[in-house]
C-alpha cells in the first residue's frame, strides 16, 4: 500500500514536470521572451558605446563591470579560504623550527 | 615526474603556451576569449612546469610571494580603474564618459578600459591558479 502511494506520487510529479517542459518555447524562435529590448540594445548599440567588436567582452567588462568585480572577489575569497585551511600559520612554523 | 621526454617536451612547449595565453588576454575585446580563459592558460603553463620540472624550478620562475602579490594587486588595479570614473564625475566603472582612449574599432589598444580590466582579470586568474596549486604542493 505504501509502495503504491509512493509510485503514484512520483508519476504525478513526473507528469507535472513534463507538462511544464512542453510549455517551454522552442530554442532559436524569434518570439522567445529572452529576445527582449535588452538584446536588441546590445546588438545595435554596443559597438557605438564601447568600440569593442566582441559583444560578450563589452557586456562583461563594460555594462556589467561591477558584476565582474564581484567575480574577481569570489576568486580572492576562495584563495583566502584555501590558504587558511592548507597553509601553516606563522606561529606553527616557529614551533616547527624549534623542533 | 622525472622523465627525459616529459622534461624536454615541457621546455619546448611552455613558451608557446604562454604566448598563446597572452594573445588571448590582449585580444579579449576583439576576438573570442578574455581574461578568464587566457588567465587559465597562463596559469596551467606554470602548473605544467611544476609537475614536470619540480616545485623548486617553478618557484624560481614565480615565487609564492610574487604570485600572492600579483593576486592582490590586480584587484586593487581593477578598483582604481573604477575610481577614475568617480574622479571624472561619472558613475563607478564608467568607460566612454570618463576619458579613456577609445581608438579605432578593431585595434588592440582601443575601447577604453576594457583591455585594462581584461589584463587585470587575466593576471588575477593566472596567479590564483598558481597560488592554490603551490599551496597544496607545499603542504606535502
Written overview of the protein:
The complex is a heterodimer of chains A (99) and B (140). Helix content of chain A is 76%, strand content 0%. Chain A is mainly alpha-helical and 99 residues long. Chain A has one domain (2-98). In chain A, helix 2 crosses helix 3 (55-63). With 140 residues, chain B is mainly alpha-helical. Chain B has one domain (4-139). Helix content of chain B is 71%, strand content 0%. In chain B, helix 2 (35-53) packs across helix 3. The longest helix of chain B is centred in the last third of the chain and has 26 residues, at 114-139. The model of chain B has no long low-confidence stretch (mean pLDDT 90). Chain A binds chain B through residues 47, 49-54, 56-58, 60-62, 65-66, 68-69, 72-73, 75-76, 78-79, 82-83, 86-87, and chain B through 28-32, 34, 71-72, 74-75, 78-79, 82, 92-93, 95-96, 102-106, 110-114, 117-118, 120-121, 124-125, 128, 131-132, 135-136, 138-139.
Residue fraction in strands of chain B: under 5%
How many strands, what sense, and barrel or not for the largest sheet of chain A?
none
Basic shape of chain A: flat
Which structural class best describes the helix and strand composition of chain B? mainly alpha
Order of helices and strands of chain B: HHHHH
Low-confidence stretches of chain B: none
Mean model confidence by pLDDT of chain B: 90
Number of helices of chain B: 5
**Secondary structure tally, helices of chain A:** 5
Q: Could you estimate the helical fraction of the residues of chain B in percent?
A: over 70%
Of all chain pairs, the largest interface belongs to: A-B, 27 and 40 residues
Order of helices and strands of chain A: HHHHH
Tell me the Rg of chain A in angstroms: 26 Å
Amino-to-carboxy terminus distance of chain A: 67 Å
Whole-number total of structural domains of chain B? 1
Parts with pLDDT < 50 across at least 5 consecutive residues of chain A: none
Overall strand count of chain A: 0
Amino acid at each position: 500500500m505504501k509502495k503504491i502511494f509512493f509510485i503514484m506520487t512520483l508519476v504525478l510529479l513526473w507528469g507535472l514536470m513534463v507538462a511544464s517542459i512542453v510549455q517551454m518555447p522552442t530554442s532559436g524562435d524569434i518570439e522567445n521572451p529572452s529576445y527582449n529590448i535588452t538584446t536588441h540594445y546590445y546588438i545595435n548599440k554596443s559597438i557605438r558605446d564601447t568600440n569593442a567588436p566582441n559583444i560578450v567582452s563589452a557586456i562583461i567588462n563594460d555594462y556589467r563591470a561591477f558584476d565582474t568585480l564581484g567575480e574577481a572577489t569570489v576568486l580572492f575569497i576562495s584563495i583566502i579560504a584555501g590558504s587558511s585551511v592548507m597553509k601553516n600559520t606563522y606561529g606553527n612554523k616557529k614551533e616547527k623550527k624549534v623542533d | 615526474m622525472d622523465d627525459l621526454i616529459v622534461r624536454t617536451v615541457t621546455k619546448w612547449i611552455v613558451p608557446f603556451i604562454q604566448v598563446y595565453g597572452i594573445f588571448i588576454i590582449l585580444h579579449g575585446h576583439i576576438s573570442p576569449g578574455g581574461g578568464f580563459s587566457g588567465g587559465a592558460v597562463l596559469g596551467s603553463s606554470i602548473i605544467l612546469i611544476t609537475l614536470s620540472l619540480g616545485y623548486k624550478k617553478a618557484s624560481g620562475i614565480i615565487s609564492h610571494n610574487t604570485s600572492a602579490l600579483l593576486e592582490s594587486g590586480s584587484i586593487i588595479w581593477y578598483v582604481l580603474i573604477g575610481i577614475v570614473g568617480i574622479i571624472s564625475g561619472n558613475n563607478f566603472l564608467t568607460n566612454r564618459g570618463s576619458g579613456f582612449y577609445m581608438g579605432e574599432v578593431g585595434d588592440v589598444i582601443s575601447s577604453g578600459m576594457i583591455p585594462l580590466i581584461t589584463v587585470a582579470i587575466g593576471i588575477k586568474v593566472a596567479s590564483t591558479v598558481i597560488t592554490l596549486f603551490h599551496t597544496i604542493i607545499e603542504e606535502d
